[in-house]
Structure to design on (696 residues):
């Protein structure tokens, strides 16, 4: 039973997340306290969920792409473009109070992010460019497009309906959490309740074999890039709505790397094949908790990245089975040299 | 398979084009960039074939300007100021946008040297690595003026002057205002600081200047200081964590308006009143920041003036005329309290 628990793919990520939260609890005892303020829950945990929401969303899309053996570097740029388009259309609107304006803006962003996802997918499947290069194009060009949309400025909007997407609350919880939960449920249902998940895993294991077995590998791959684009687009909406502004230069900067890290921490291999959506969510939460922890305990900004790197290194090492085995062996050798001797002679 | 291959070609062409337009997009409203500048050499060179500064007296002065990029509203205002005042002064302005890359700027400066412009001005992206290209300009007899940001070259003869804000002074102004405000305070004043991008000159200097002024009063304590990367989103995120970790924050000092604006949202979400429960000091005075100040949400803004075009043109004229100019020209900057911001807001250019 114990062994089964340890071998579960969520065991180590959850341990790390637990350790981080425990550390915070020791550092500031009211870390877990939640207060009801103006009908909204207020506390550090809510912050982590709220600020982690876009990252979780992007990581969910990234998980599916990575499961097919691909990678999507352009998510950060799509985040920026989507926020830029939404804020631009809202700032151009005449009737700021109308809900239609926000719906059109959101619709335009979602549509554009689908198109951008399709673009990535088409480059990968039709022109057979390697995913890392195919998506690198949009990663680089996308920032330019975002700046083109915002004309290099930060567009500020003051529209309460739009702000609601990123900063509003529903049933005492941030609204963004519900968006993420919705997308997570959608992704889980599609991949675990239909054959799609199996298709993705088989394409990721061996695209050619899957094709020969009668699977439309290209369609599957195209679909995951489109989905990843959609996730990034919605994440962009949440991010820009949270601060009521679009910053083509900085919105979603380096998001692709955080998302890939979250996927890997969650237990999905970059080689493709099996994927773990819940693992990814835990991975993204680990990253966000770490960021919040660093702010809370006041790590000087000059060494923030080093601290982050050490924690990430530790997480990766703990997750590596080979490393754990070596560690165990070393431990045994040091303490029971006689036992080692015996097994060797036997 | 054959038609499919053609599709691939068409697609990759489309990619190339989108990359090219994207690069063009980053330039904002600029007329030409460093690369096209090279082609123009042929057409503009005859006008300057007198070369050097002597001929410039009766000819139109040509100024080559290599801008950092168009990364913020501040920078756009800076660009516009330079373009407008060059036009006003009747100079021919060759403008390039480096998109935050040093190699682009070096390329642009080399093309200006080839085109034999009368004066080269630029805002260096980073502080180091300019000696070679500045030496080339010096050898070609073209004076160089730095704007907005400095270089760390040991040889100060490589450039004529440096026009720009004094970031340390900006920090001092912020610190001085706070020290005056709380000079009779009997209780501790807890300050949190949102720093700019770690290691950047404005972040380092604004921090140093501020600390210098508040050091005199032991009641003024910086209890937390963290980078917000000069962005609104980070400012909000860090401020939320500050509010959770410290229950008794009295003052927020943000190194730019954007971070202050993000922090204001965090403070409001915590059920506090920005400007009253927490006193907010910020630097830059861009439009959104001034609006917040006029609304009473920011108590004090130190201006960081991007409109250095007129001063640059004066310096260019002086250099061309062969006059001696000061090695450091500080831009004229002021400060705003909430009331002053309310008055100044309608007439702000950026």
């Amino acid at each position: 039973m114990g062994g089964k628990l340890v071998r579960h793919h969520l065991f180590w990520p959850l341990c790390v997340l637990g350790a981080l939260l425990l550390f915070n609890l020791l550092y500031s005892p009211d870390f877990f306290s939640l207060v009801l303020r103006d009908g909204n829950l207020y506390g550090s945990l809510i912050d982590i969920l709220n600020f982690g929401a876009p990252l979780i969303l992007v990581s969910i899309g990234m998980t599916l792409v990575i499961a097919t053996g691909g990678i999507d570097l352009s998510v950060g740029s799509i985040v920026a473009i989507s926020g830029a388009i939404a804020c631009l259309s809202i700032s151009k609107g005449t009737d700021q109070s109308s809900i239609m304006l926000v719906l059109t803006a959101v619709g335009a962003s979602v549509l554009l992010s689908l198109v951008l996802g399709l673009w990535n997918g088409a480059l990968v499947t039709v022109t057979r460019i390697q995913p890392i290069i195919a998506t690198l194009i949009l990663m680089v060009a996308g920032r330019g497009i975002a700046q083109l949309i915002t004309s290099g400025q930060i567009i500020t909007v003051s529209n309460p309906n739009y702000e609601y997407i990123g900063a509003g609350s529903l049933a005492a919880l941030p609204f963004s959490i519900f968006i993420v939960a919705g997308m997570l449920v959608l992704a889980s249902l599609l991949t675990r309740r239909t054959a799609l998940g199996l298709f993705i895993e088989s394409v990721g294991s061996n695209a050619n074999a899957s094709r020969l077995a009668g699977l439309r590998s290209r369609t599957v791959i195209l679909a995951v890039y489109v989905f990843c684009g959609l996730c990034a687009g919605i994440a962009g909406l949440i991010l820009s709505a949270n601060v009521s502004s679009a910053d083509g230069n900085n919105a979603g900067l380096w998001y692709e790397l955080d998302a890939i890290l979250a996927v890997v921490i969650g237990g999905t291999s970059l080689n493709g094949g099996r994927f773990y959506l819940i693992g990814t969510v835990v991975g993204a939460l680990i990253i966000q908790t770490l960021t919040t922890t660093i702010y809370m305990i006041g790590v000087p900004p000059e060494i923030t990245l080093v601290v982050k790197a050490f924690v990430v290194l530790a997480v990766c090492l703990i997750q590596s089975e080979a490393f754990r085995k070596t560690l165990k062996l070393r431990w045994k050798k040091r303490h029971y040299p006689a036992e080692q001797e015996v097994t060797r002679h036997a | 398979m054959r038609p499919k291959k053609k599709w691939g070609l068409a697609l990759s062409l489309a990619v190339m084009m989108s990359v090219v337009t994207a690069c063009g997009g980053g330039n904002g409203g600029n007329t030409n960039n460093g690369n096209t500048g090279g082609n123009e050499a042929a057409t503009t060179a005859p006008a300057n074939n007198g070369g050097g500064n002597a001929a410039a007296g009766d000819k139109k002065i040509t100024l080559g300007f290599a801008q950092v990029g168009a990364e913020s509203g501040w920078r756009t205002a800076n660009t516009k100021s330079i373009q407008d005042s060059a036009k006003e002064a009747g100079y021919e302005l060759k403008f390039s946008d480096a998109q935050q890359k040093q190699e682009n700027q070096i390329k642009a400066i080399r093309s200006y040297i080839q085109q034999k412009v009368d004066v080269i001005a630029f805002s260096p992206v980073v502080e180091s690595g300019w000696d070679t290209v500045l030496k080339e300009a010096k050898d070609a007899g073209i004076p160089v003026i730095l704007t907005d940001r400095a270089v760390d070259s040991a040889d100060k003869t490589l450039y004529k002057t440096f026009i720009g804000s004094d970031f340390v002074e900006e920090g001092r102004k912020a610190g001085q205002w706070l020290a005056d405000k709380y000079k009779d305070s009997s209780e501790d004043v807890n300050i949190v600081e949102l720093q700019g991008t770690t290691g950047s000159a404005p972040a380092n200097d604004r921090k140093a200047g501020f600390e210098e002024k508040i050091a005199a009063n032991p009641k003024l304590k910086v209890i937390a200081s963290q980078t917000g990367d000069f962005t609104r989103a980070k400012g909000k995120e860090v401020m939320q964590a500050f509010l959770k970790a410290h229950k008794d924050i009295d003052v927020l000092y943000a190194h730019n308006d954007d971070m202050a604006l993000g922090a204001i949202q965090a403070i409001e979400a915590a059920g506090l009143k920005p400007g009253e429960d927490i006193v907010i000091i910020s630097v830059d005075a861009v439009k959104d920041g001034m609006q917040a100040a006029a609304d009473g949400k920011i108590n004090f803004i130190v201006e960081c003036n991007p409109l250095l075009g007129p001063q640059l043109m004066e310096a260019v004229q002086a250099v061309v005329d062969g006059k001696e100019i000061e090695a450091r020209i500080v831009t004229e900057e002021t400060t705003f309290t909430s009331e002053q911001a309310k008055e100044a807001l309608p007439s702000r250019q950026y």
About this structure: Chain B has two domains: 7-11+27-165+306-332, 167-304.
